[in-house]
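can u pls check wat happens w/ 2-acetamido-2-deoxy-beta-D-glucopyranose
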Amino acid sequence: MEIFHPFLLILAVLLGSLAQEDLERQVFIFPESSDTSHVVLKATSQQPLTSFTICLRSYTDMTRAHTLFSYATKTSDNEIVVFKSKTNEYSLYVGTADVIFFFPEKLVSEPSWEQICMSWESDTGLVEFWLDGQPFPRNGMMKGHVISPEASIVLGQDQDSFGGGFDINQSFVGELTDVYMWDRVLSGDEMCLVWDNHVPSNPIINWRSLNYVMRGYTVLKPFLFSNCRAE
Ligand SMILES: *[C@@H]1O[C@H](CO)[C@@H](O)[C@H](O)[C@H]1NC(C)=O
Ligand SMILES: [Ca+2]
């Protein structure tokens, strides 16, 4: 028999919504493909969004399409999606549209971390994509659109319904860190600061004070630094 004491229930809800943790130098690891493993985030803003910037770092050796960040609302499961469609292709979905950014295949012999920032603004519809501190030619979409703040925000899976509807073939396998969101378009200088590990003011999702819940097979671990020295 389960007993729900009203006071305890309220306390749990309050604690749950206030639990925030500084995850500096930590990573979320998604060890295998699944249609269950994900991390749920809560944003601090309750205002409709007319612009945003999302930044994160990912580390993976997978070549299939995968979802990094999924922001679903009650009316649109793809309200915001940061998707890596191919090794050399990132996409951003907003509302009912999407843009794709292509970059030349990198000639690297080992996997490397990729730091990205994507922004969108309603006034012009312009989308910015920054990869490792470099801006790409701007695209545009969904001019005049407004994004509801009532959202289910998920890392590592694409939502096809509010909080669920995951597809194993769009899941992320690898490591994620330094996840941030702002309710504005960062300036060019600020985009560089994020790449250099600084945090421009007032993020609504803040890796250094993160409100999150891990679900399924996900692991929080320290960032791995290589101290190996070639002789
Ligand atoms: C995932 O991809 C595999 C291989 O392409 C396919 O056989 C399978 O049906 C897909 N699963 C889903 C849920 O789409
Ligand atoms: Ca979807």
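The mean pLDDT is 92.
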